[in-house]
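Justification of computing resources. Each target in the renewal requires a structure prediction run like the one illustrated here; the chain below, 857 residues long, is used simply to show the kind of job we budget for.
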Amino acid sequence: MRMRGELETYRGKRRFGETPEPKGRKGAARAGGGRYLIQRHAATRLHYDFRIEADGVLKSWAVTKAPSRDPHVKRLAVEVEDHPLDYGDFEGTIPAGNYGAGTVQMWDTGTWAPQEPDLAAAFARGQIKMVLDGERLKGKWALIRLKTDRGRPSKRNNWLLIKEKDEFAVEGEGDANMEIDASITTGRTMAQIAEGRKQWTSSKPTGRKAPPKPKATKAQKSDAERPRAFVPIQLCKTADHPPSDAGWAHEIKFDGYRIQIATGGGQATLRTRKGLDWTERFPELAADAARWPDAVIDGEVCALAEDSSPDFSALQTALSDGETEALVYFAFDLLFEGSEDLRDLPLSHRKARLEAYVQRIAKGAAKRVRYVDHFASSGRAVLESACRMDLEGVISKRLDAPYRAGRSTTWVKSKCRGRDEVVIGGWTTDGSRFRSLLVGIKEGQGLRSLGRVGTGYAQPLVKTLIPALAAVETDRSPFVGKDAPKRATRGETIHWTRPVLVAEIEHGGYTDGGSLRQAAFKGLREDKAAAEVDAPPQPPSSTIKAGAKTGGANGRSGKVVVAGVTISNPDKVLWPAHDGADPITKADLARYYEAAAERILPHVADRPLSIIRAPEGIGGEQFFQRHAMPGSNPRLKLIDVHERKPYVAVVDVGGLVAVGQSGGLELHPWGCAPGDPETPDQITFDLDPDVGLDFGDVIAASKVVKTRLEALGLNPFVKTTGGKGLHVVVPIKADKRSAVTWEQNKAFAKAVSEAVRAEAPDRFTTTLAKKARGGKIFLDYLRNGRMATAAAPWSPRARPGAGVAFPLAWGQVKTGLDPRAFNMLTAPALLRKADPWADFRQGAVSLKPALKTMGVS
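Resulting C-alpha cells:
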C-alpha cells in the first residue's frame, strides 16, 4: 500500500462544479495519529467510509457494514483513494451523475493514534493497529490487509476492520450499530439530509441514474395525535452475582423511580412502573419530552448527589418540595419509535436505536436526559466498580433478547448491599420526637415483623414521612405472629398504621430471628403498592449456636446465604473437632462474622486489612491476603496505600461475611484511623510468653504495662490474642491537632517497652529472636509501624480450638483467667454480654504529652 498521501486520484474522479465535496489540499504531515471519522454513505449500496488522518490526507476505506464492537465480527474494508482533510467536515448529498452520488452522513468522529511507532512500516506490512477515541467507537482496532492464496496482497486492496478485545469491546453486539441513523454532528437522519439536497444542485445533469432517496422509516413517519398508552414493563430477577458468560450487557442500577415516557403529537406522558400518570410531578422533564420525536422510552428518574451518583433520599426531598428542575432521566430502553414496535428486536438493536434517538434530542435537553451505556466486560468487574463507587448494584441484560413484560431471566439484578422494600406497620415516638419505623412483610391477613428501622431520618424526609403516617394511623396493630411488637419500651409510644405504605430501606442482612440488621430509611415508595412487596429475597440467616453443628453430619447442604452473601461449599470444615467439641464449618464462620459484626466493625472498618486465609481449613495451606485478587467479592473495598496494589478492606457486615466466604479465618487491620492509612490511632503491645511460662505470668506482665501507660496519662485496654498471650492496646487521638506519625508511634512503643524491660530484665525482653527469650515475656512493639498489623478484637484465630481475640475488662484479668474459654463456640453467649470495649474510642487521648515525657521526638 502507498503511504505517501496524494489527492490526484480523488480530484480526477470529481467535477467540483457539480458536487459539494471539497477540492481540498494536502495538509501538513503529523508524526503519527490525528483525526479519525466515519461517514455513512447511501450510494449505490449503503456503506461506511472509514478514514484516518495520515501523511496530510485522510486514508480511506469503504466498509461494507457499520463497524461492530464485537471482536468476533470482521468487516470487509476496501481501500479507496485518499481524501483531503477538509472532507472530514462534509455532510450532504452528492448529486446524481457524480462519482459516489448519494447521501453522506457524519456517523462518527474523533481522534486516532497508532499502537506502534513506525506507521509507514505498519502500512507496508498491511497491519495497522490503532486506538480510536471517537464519539461512538473507542479503544483498540486493527485494519488487516487480505492476501491472495499465494501470499501476495489482494489486487482490490481488501482489508478487514476488526475490534480488538479491551474494555470497550461489546461481545454479542453483532450488527446493532447498523440501527444507528443519526449524524454525530447535526443529529439528522439520512432521510432528513436527503430532503435538504436542493442546496446541492447539479448544473450539468448526466444520464446516470441517481441512487434512490433513502426512504423514511416507520420511526420517522408518525401522525400520532397523542402519546401511546402505557406499555407493560420488563422487570428483573434477583441474583447473587452478575452472569459471567458472553452475550450479556451490564448497566449500572439507578436509585430512583422507574418511569416510562411516551411522546407524540407534541405531548408527553410520564408513567410509573404500574402505569400511574406522574406527568405533573415532573413538569420540567415533561415539557422537554413533549418536544421529542414520537416514542416510548423506558428509564429511571434520579436526583444526583454532589458526586453525581443517584440519591434516592434527595429524589424524595425534591418531589416533596416541588423542586424537580435538576432531576435527570436515565434512558435505558426504546420500546417504540414513531409507529414502529421495537420490542421484538434484540436489546443490542434497541439500544443502538435509543442511543441515536437520545443524540438527536440531547442538544436541547442534555441536562435532563442521558443515554445509559452498558459494559460487556466481566459482570463481576462491573459490580465491583459499582460497589466501590457506593452505587446500588448492576442490572445484567441479554444482548440478544427481546423486551418482554414481567420478570424474566434475561434481566438480572445484582446488588452491592442489602436493599429491600418493606411495609410500614407503625412508628415510635419519644415525647414529640420521631424515633423509628416498625416494618414487616405481608403474611396472611397481617404483617410479619422484620423489626425496626432506626436511622436515616434526615429532616427533609421526616417532613414528608410524618404526614403520610398520620394519614393512615389506626388503633390496631397490623402485625401477626409470635414476633409481633406488643409493647413500647420505657418512655416510648407506639403508633399503629394500616399496612399500605411502602418504605425503601438499606440494611446489613437479617438476624437469626428474621429481623433486619442496621436498617436505614431511604424513602417512601409511592410507586409501589404494599401487596407487591415480596418476602426478603435472601432467607434470614442463623447465628451459630453454642455447641451446635451446622454442616456435614447434620445433613445441611445446598445454598446458604448470610447477610446477602452466598456461601459456597458451606459444609466445608475449617476447624476440625477439638477436645470433644464439634467441628466448625464455613457456614458457621460466616454466621459468626454476621453475629459479631457490630463488635468487630468499629476496629476494622475502612482500614487496610491483612487476612489469613485457609480455604481448606486450618490443616491446609494458610496464606496472607492483603491485595484484591481475581474474583474478589465486590463487598470488599479497596484502599490505596501508595504501594504496588491497593489493600482490601471491609466496611459492613457483608464485607465481613465475604471474607468468611473466601476462607478468611483471621483479621489483621492496620492500627490507623478509618479512611486514613497515614495516621495511627492506637498502639499495641503484644505480650508473648516463652515456652514454659504459664498464663499467670502474662497476666502479671500486662498489669506492669498497664501501670506504666496510665502513669503517662493514657487509657490502656486489654484483650486475649486467641493464643497464649495478651494484647495491651492504647487508643490515641488522630485529629489534625493530635495526630502523630507512624515513626513516632513505633518509637513510643519501643521506648515504653525498653523502659519496662530495663526495670525487670529477668522477666522481659524486647529481642525478637526466640533464643534470647530464656523464660521471659517478649514485649513486641513492632506492631506499631506503618503496614504492621495485629489481630482485631473478636477475630477468630486459625488454630486448633477456634480461639477468638477477645476484649476483656481489666477486672477479668486475674488468676484463673483461661483464654481458651473465648472461642467461636462460646461466642453466642459472649455476644449477649456487654462489650468491655464499648468505650474504646472514647478513651483516646493525645499521645503528644506522653511522647515528650518519654523523650521521643
